[in-house]
């Protein structure tokens, strides 16, 4: 069982006592109990697509299920002892934490945390007003979007030409086709007159 929490989350603080009591029973239940701070592990919380806190997952043999039951020690223990986890639908393959797309989501979670940390550094340590920091991020985002958009358009135009380039290519193909037809006709005439 894995719990995702944050230090600033009141519901997470309320759950902590029950979760620690449940963790004390982990050896008796022959399971492992863990907790993950999403502020220090944004990539892991991204892989699990944690959008609400606290979030609890049951993990067994590489199969992940999200726990939705009551949040107390006895409910956790009966969930394991009575194997209630087997009645919960496993996460679909596209949401599986080991899937490639969830790896990409994890990278974006890490990137967002890095941007947030950089913003905090600029505001707290450098002394830049937060609106200037936001303006800088907006400018960089727009510039990157323009550059990437321009590159994508260039690649598409190269792969799928339009306008004059497409007409020139069509004329070239038609000329080659006519040349091959003429070559076949002259070859046929040569064979007729060669006899």
Quick description:
The protein has a domain at 2-100: 3-Layer(aba) Sandwich (Glutaredoxin). 63% of the residues lie in helices and 10% in strands.
Give a verbal description of the structure.
The chain has helices spanning 10-24, 26-29, 42-47, 73-81, 100-126, 130-159, 164-194, and strands spanning 2-5, 34-37, 55-60, 63-67. It is α+β, with helices and mostly antiparallel strands and 195 residues long. The chain has a domain at 2-100: Glutaredoxin (3-Layer(aba) Sandwich). The model has no long low-confidence stretch (mean pLDDT 87).
Shape: elongated
Order of neighbouring strands in the sheet with most strands: 2-1-3-4
CATH C-level category of the domain at 2-100: Alpha Beta
Please report which band the strand proportion falls in: under 5%, 5-15%, 15-25%, 25-35%, 35-45% or over 45%: 5-15%
CATH topology of the domain at 2-100: the name is Glutaredoxin
The second-level CATH architecture of the domain at 2-100 is 3-Layer(aba) Sandwich
Helix content: 55-70%
Overall pLDDT, averaged?
A: 87
- Mind telling me the CATH superfamily name of the domain at 2-100? Glutaredoxin
Q: Structural class given helices, strands, pairing? A: alpha+beta
Radius of gyration: 31 Å
Q: Could you state the order of secondary-structure elements as H and E? A: EHHEHEEHHHH
Largest sheet: 4 strands, mixed
Span of the ends, CA to CA: 89 Å
**H/I helix tally:** 7
Count the beta strands.
4
């Amino acid at each position: 069982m894995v719990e995702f929490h944050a230090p600033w989350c009141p519901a997470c603080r309320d759950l902590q006592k029950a979760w620690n009591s449940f963790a004390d029973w982990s050896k008796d239940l022959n399971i492992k109990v863990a907790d993950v701070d999403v502020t220090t592990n944004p990539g892991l919380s991204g892989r699990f697509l944690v959008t609400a806190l606290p979030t609890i997952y049951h993990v067994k043999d590489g199969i992940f299920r999200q726990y939705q039951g009551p949040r107390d020690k006895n409910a956790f223990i009966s969930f394991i002892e009575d194997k209630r986890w087997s009645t919960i639908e496993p996460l679909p393959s596209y949401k599986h934490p080991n899937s490639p797309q969830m790896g990409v989501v994890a990278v974006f979670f890490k990137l967002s945390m890095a941007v947030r940390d950089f913003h905090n550094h600029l505001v707290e340590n450098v002394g830049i007003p937060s609106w200037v920091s936001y303006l800088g991020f907006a400018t960089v985002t727009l510039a990157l979007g323009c550059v990437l958009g321009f590159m994508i358009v260039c690649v598409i135009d190269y792969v799928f030409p339009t306008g004059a380039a497409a007409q020139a290519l069509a004329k070239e193909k038609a000329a080659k086709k006519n040349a091959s037809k003429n070559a076949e006709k002259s070859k046929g005439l040569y064979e007729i007159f060669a006899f």
